[in-house]
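[Discussion] Sanity-checking designs against the backbone

I'm trying to build intuition for which residues belong where. Below is a structure token string of 278 positions. I'd appreciate it if someone posts a full sequence so I can compare it with mine line by line.
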């Protein structure tokens, strides 16, 4: 999908991994108030908004781990997180309508991540379910006003590409390992424009300068996960960066500015305000 505006502000929300196991849905309320305060032109949910652990292929043969995991509960938590995230925006829009004023209506995009894509892989092994479950429909994304970018596809915003994780020339997503060079630098070997992605939960910026051409950059936007780690990461070192990233992009595709806002900053800015309102 391509869109072109002279200059716009875009908010990238990295992997959120809403799931019953970790909870902490109040983080979406902090973020919702931040959105109505800062008013970005475009909001991009970068994928892996839900974990869908009930459909995990990694744990499918581990009966004790899979016990009590239910798809309907994964969906319920995802919908609750979206309800909380959009509540402040919808309240402001309702007040504007009542006062007959122009409402703030950002364009919103939902990028499908590999965790949402778990459902497709699950149906591949259980084709009897085809057409009966669909995480993108079950989250009511289009009803909520989101345009959907499928896993492996790109949102082209004035020549800067947003995706959950770029795919390499072999048709498989890039991945980072301790023995390879920077993921951002490897991604830029396949791109001629700026690219913004999530997936790794890390914050990283890499730039490549090409002879006679403007430099291009790869931006990894971290994540917006709960403080409690999911079961699969319980014994792993948490090297994630938790927060959100604001971009200002020119019509030339040049990224004019980047602002990183930590999750702890959002908590300190809005937790007391929300408590005072309740």
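Best answer:
Here's mine. Compare freely.
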């Amino acid at each position: 999908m391509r869109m072109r505006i002279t200059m716009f502000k875009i908010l990238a929300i990295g992997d959120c991994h809403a799931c019953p196991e970790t909870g902490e849905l109040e983080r979406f309320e902090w973020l919702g108030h931040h959105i109505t305060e800062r008013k970005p032109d475009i909001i991009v949910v970068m994928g892996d908004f839900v974990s869908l652990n009930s459909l995990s292929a990694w744990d499918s043969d581990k009966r004790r781990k899979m016990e009590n995991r239910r798809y309907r509960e994964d969906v319920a938590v995802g919908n609750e997180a979206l309800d909380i995230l959009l509540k402040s925006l919808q309240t402001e829009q309702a007040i504007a309508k009542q006062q007959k004023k122009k409402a703030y209506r950002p364009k919103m995009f939902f990028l499908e991540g590999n965790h949402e894509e778990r459902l497709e892989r699950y149906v591949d092994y259980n084709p009897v379910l085809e057409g009966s479950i669909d995480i993108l429909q079950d989250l009511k994304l289009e009803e909520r006003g989101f345009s959907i970018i499928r896993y492996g596809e790109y949102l082209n915003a004035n020549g800067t590409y947003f995706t959950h994780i770029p795919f390499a020339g072999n048709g498989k997503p890039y991945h980072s390992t301790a023995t390879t060079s920077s993921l951002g630098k490897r991604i830029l070997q396949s791109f001629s424009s700026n690219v913004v992605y999530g997936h790794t939960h890390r914050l990283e910026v890499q730039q490549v300068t090409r002879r006679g051409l403007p430099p291009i950059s790869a931006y990894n936007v971290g994540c917006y996960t709960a403080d409690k780690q999911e079961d699969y990461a319980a014994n792993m070192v948490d090297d994630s960066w938790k927060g959100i990233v604001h971009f200002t992009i020119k019509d030339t595709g040049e990224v004019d500015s980047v602002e990183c806002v930590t999750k702890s900053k959002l908590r300190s800015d809005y937790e007391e305000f929300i408590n005072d309102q309740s």
